């Protein structure tokens, strides 16, 4: 295969001469073709056992289609990992606006600490979480009504045969399941809870069925009240609502009504207090040396997650995971490969620094370097282009000509320390784009008349098709470069002695979310 693919290039000039072979080679070395990924369905089945999934809020009502898809899929996997490991605390690194953190706390009742370096993101997450809770309570109320209706329907249609009455799965079950000891595949056994087979007489009438349901509901409510009253013991004295005469005429209420109203108020206060403590947005910059216990005072056995952790943050998250015994599992989806720091890109600089690439010892020994252009290419979305979402050719052309102008007129190379950003979308013309960009780079645009700017545009306009073809080749090559970065992270985990299982899992639809691969790992149970 290597010999076949090498014929895509001229042996003497090393120029590309066979685009078809080039595309086939790129496809061959992509993650989907190499067969190194573990299917998401297999991971969920192994972790979940007989535990049923959870249904809840419709995320597309509160997030865009891309974000709701990502949060829904990833939160299910995170919840299953947390349950398998028997943990309730989740650390969301690079939590941003808190979409994933909020959903994990409300949908799955996990205690989530969302850590982001931006205080504006953290403040926004606080406000967004507050608004989401209002909608969440409405969904919970609606869900309870639907559950009651479904329970009545099941009771009416229940056959008269014997039924299986399963014992409640206690919290210790997850600690007794088989561990993930094989480095190459997930082997989990004995996840089925023990069951008692008893004869249950079916109620003869709908009235009896409703009576059974009422008894069950009352039992549940009694338990809930006991839990709420236990919470009240730690609430401040002013947590109890004051029933003043402006709200009620106390003289007209009997003692029982007063007691019931007070209990209702206490329950509401307790519920709100409990809910508000499930998700904690925090502001902090995470590095490989970060001590989480300095940020989270009640740190306990937990797992780390990251939804599109940017640049070096993805690598640092993996390093923290392997180094800290209290972190039992990780699920990390990286992005922004162009912002990765590379050890061998600028040799001789910053000795002793922790680099984002490479991570594994194998590539370190090889002195491997991708370079910024390759990392930029890895960020491109082949699947989107394949379904017709073409590259923004005009903006790319503007940016290319701008680089020529800056180098020839100002003797300055546009590199990673200065960014033009999304100037194209704000510009009315090429002249406007150039002037906005120069000001953003703090370069004097007065020495450049409009006529000179347009001369550059006209000089290179006929080469726009070449630029488009070049960028299409970069798109085809993108998955191969992403493979290198992801396999480097996976190999780093394989090199660690305390990891029971690690793998790459394709979580998302790549058209909706191009950075769709998660690095997932669980530590040995002996580390628990």
Automatic annotation (TrEMBL):
Coiled coil: none
Domain Methyltransferase: 66-343
Pfam families hit by this protein: Methyltransf_32 (PF13679)
InterPro entries: Methyltranfer_dom, METTL25, SAM-dependent_MTases_sf
SUPFAM superfamilies recorded: S-adenosyl-L-methionine-dependent methyltransferases
Name this polypeptide is given: MET25 protein
Organism: Grantiella picta
Lineage of source species: Eukaryota, Metazoa, Chordata, Craniata, Vertebrata
Gene name as annotated: Mettl25
